[in-house]
Structures are given as structure tokens and as C-alpha cells.
Amino acid sequence: MKDCLPQLDPEIIAALGSSGPDRRNLPMTIMIGRCLGCERRLPWPAPKPGYWAAAVPCPECGRWYYTEAHNHTLPVLRLGDQRTPQGLAEQYSPAGMSELERALGSLVPSDDRRGDDRHEVRVNLPAVPLTESLESPCEVLEVRLVNLSPVGCCLQLNEPLSVAYLLLDFSVVGFPGFQALAAVRWLETKSGVTKVGCKFLLGSGGDLPLDAR
């Protein structure tokens, strides 16, 4: 009976054991999840640092999302009537930003707001760099969110920045599909670290999905 058992050559066993990538080392893909405007399921990958991002509308309500684009070159963006920053910002809610601020940090004074209060958070986020016409000139950046208020934030990154806007995606911190358009107001670079002061452009759009946290 023993002679009937299959015998595998050691080289074959080694080849079988090493086939395919180690899935434990693969980067996790975070999805948009569902639309904040109409709750339609959106199985789209959220923006990821080092990859291009493209603007895509919800097929049901037309709300725009920046998603990961599997492009090696700049994707073509078609924002239609929301081609202007303020037009795009109409879908972002002041109430949603207030909820996000309360959820992410503890209230501390910050000189960056000239006496106003912000929440100190210190988390890393993907940020889509955007020009004044909402074109993305390069891949998604990773920025460090230092502090946050309903109207603005302070960011840090380890490279120069020369764009008018940053589209921040909060999926990685537990808020899938929640994005905010931030206008760059000031820059300060010291020892290779760029500090960025931003103001959020807001309208009357959908609120933060608290049940998605």
C-alpha cells in the first residue's frame, strides 16, 4: 500500500509552495461603499497614494466621487456642470464636516486658527491634488492631517506642493465615501516638510454617514 502513495519531487513541492503572491503583504483596497446622496451601493476603490484618481458620478443621483484609477497616465476628467470648484463643493455639507470633526479628535487650541479651536487628529489620509480647473496633475499624495475644524484643516507632507486644491478622502479612518474639497490657503516648508493650511469649500450636500463608522 505504501508503494501506491504518490511521491512528489522536492523541486515540485518547492514550486507549489512558492506559487502566487503572499496575500498578507498585498495592500488593502478600501471601497467607497455607498453613495452619501442616495445610498446606492458603489463598489469603487477609494483614492490610494501613488495612484491616479478619476472623478466618477453616482449613476443614480449624480454625486461626484474621486476614485482610484488604474491608469499609467493622467485620466480624462469630465465633471460637466460641476467643473468649477464651487460647483463641486455644493455636494459637501457643513453639518457633515462638523460631525467628522467631533468624531476624529479631542478639542485643543491651535495657533493655526489664530485663536479659534480645532480638533487635533494626526492621521494619514490620501489627498487628490487638483488644479483650479479640477484637473489632477499627478498621482494621489499621502498627507498627515494635523488638525481639523468644520471650515478648514492643517496638513503636512514630505514633498513640495503647487496645486490650488486637495480632495481629501476619509475612507481610511472609518468614513467610506466621505470626501472634502480643500482650497490651499498657505504653505510653509521647513527641513523638507511642507505644512499646508486649507479652507474647506462647502455647500448643502449630503451629511456624514454615522452608521458607517
What's the CATH topology name of one domain? Thrombin, subunit H
Unreliable residue stretches = 10-21, 106-115, 209-213
The CATH architecture category of one domain equals: Beta Barrel
Order of helices and strands: HEEEEHHEEEEEEE
**How confident is the prediction overall: mean pLDDT?**
78
Spatial strand sequence of the major β-sheet: 6-7-8-11-10-9
Span between termini: 58 Å
Which of globular, elongated, flat, extended, rod-shaped describes the shape?
A: globular
Rg, nearest Å: 21 Å
DSSP E strands, number:
11
Draw up the topology in text.
Layout: H1 10-18, E1 31-34, E2 41-45, E3 52-57, E4 64-69, H2 85-89, H3 94-104, E5 106-109, E6 117-130, E7 141-148, E8 152-157, E9 165-169, E10 179-190, E11 193-200
Antiparallel strand pairs: 1-2, 3-4, 5-6, 6-7, 6-9, 7-8, 8-11, 9-10, 10-11
Task: Kindly list the characteristics that best describe this protein.
mainly beta; Thrombin, subunit H; six-stranded antiparallel β-barrel; 3 helices; 12% helix
What's this entry about, in short?
With 213 residues, this protein is mainly beta. The protein is 12% helix and 37% strand. A 6-stranded antiparallel beta barrel has the order 6-7-8-11-10-9. Strands 1-2 form a two-stranded antiparallel sheet.
